[in-house]
Known about the structure:
This protein is an alpha/beta fold. The protein folds into 2 domains: 4-111, Roll (CBS-domain); 122-346, Spore Coat Polysaccharide Biosynthesis Protein SpsA, Chain A. It has helices at residues 15-25, 45-53, 62-65, 76-85, 152-161, 176-184, 202-205, 231-240, 292-295, 305-314, 335-346; strands at residues 8-10, 29-33, 39-44, 91-94, 100-104, 122-126, 146-147, 150-151, 167-172, 191-196, 218-222, 225-227, 245-255, 259-263, 269-274, 277-289, 319-325, 329-331. The strands form 6 sheets. It has a 7-stranded mixed beta sheet, sandwiched between helices. It is globular, with a radius of gyration of 23 Å.
Amino acid sequence: MENMQMFIGRDTISVSEAMQRIDRNSYGILFLEDAAGKMIASITDGDIRRYLLAGGKMNDDAFDAANHEPRYAGSFEEAGMLYHKRDYVIIPIIDENHIIMDLYFGDGSARIKKRNAINIPVVINAGGKGTRLDPFTRILPKPLIPVGELPIIELIMREYQSYDCGDFHIIVNYKRDLMKAYFHDNDNKYNITWYDEEVPLGTGGGLSLLRGVFDSTFFFTNCDALLTSDYEAMLQFHKQNNNIITMVCAYKNLNIPYGVVEMREGGIIENLKEKPLMSFLANTGIYIVEPEVIDEISDGECVGFPDIVEREKQKGRKVAVFPVSENDWMDMGQLPELEKMRHRLFGE
Length: 348
């Protein structure tokens, strides 16, 4: 039986703590109980995302973001009927006092959510030198560095293909002949259009090479970030809010290993926190973009895509963040992160 305590938390924990607990149990849900042990709510990663998008904060009480009418059963038989009637992940089994006695996981099939086809183009910026992965990138371009049996760029492409996004546009520069040779000899035939940067154009300038290619929304991604979140929900959010750019960001939680002091005039201690938890949004390097953004990038302009986001924001256009869990984001930009990614994907 699964360790039940991984799935149960007090109603006094913060949104940030709930997110970390959800990440650790990997089922996307946590049940909240009061001081008497009575189950009073459930909270999912989706609940947290909606709460944060509505203006909630990571240090708010998780109970404020939770579902206060969670589904439950009184027996295994009832749990089985509920579980297979709808796409539930876990059904808690409670006694007459609403104390969780067990959890029903079913056969696991309902945890694999069917992915709907969204079928929009994907642009991958794969032209950088990958200096943070030196000395590997002296021999191979960063996108071809293997993570397990496949290079990172192919793992990224397969994730998009799982949503029927198979139209790939790849911007290349450093060691581009190796990139093209790898995919030319690849048994898995991909629909790729190549765009050669003759000079480095930054993380955004290479998009100018695609002027006139698109007349609809596309994904734009760096070649070192793998995201295992809900791409359909990202696209739906982008379109419903009429964004010109949606930046996918991951919540990172960082424990400061020191006592942190806030001081006011005269050296008076304003506040003292012992080893506080800091939460912040980190840019994953993955975006959803409208094609008119490309038209506003000058030919040959060297510019980072975050600078393009800021330019659009200054013009009064709608740019927004779609937050995901830090557990959904794997980045191989540096050697320690590369090893973490390999371990998470393949247990190596």
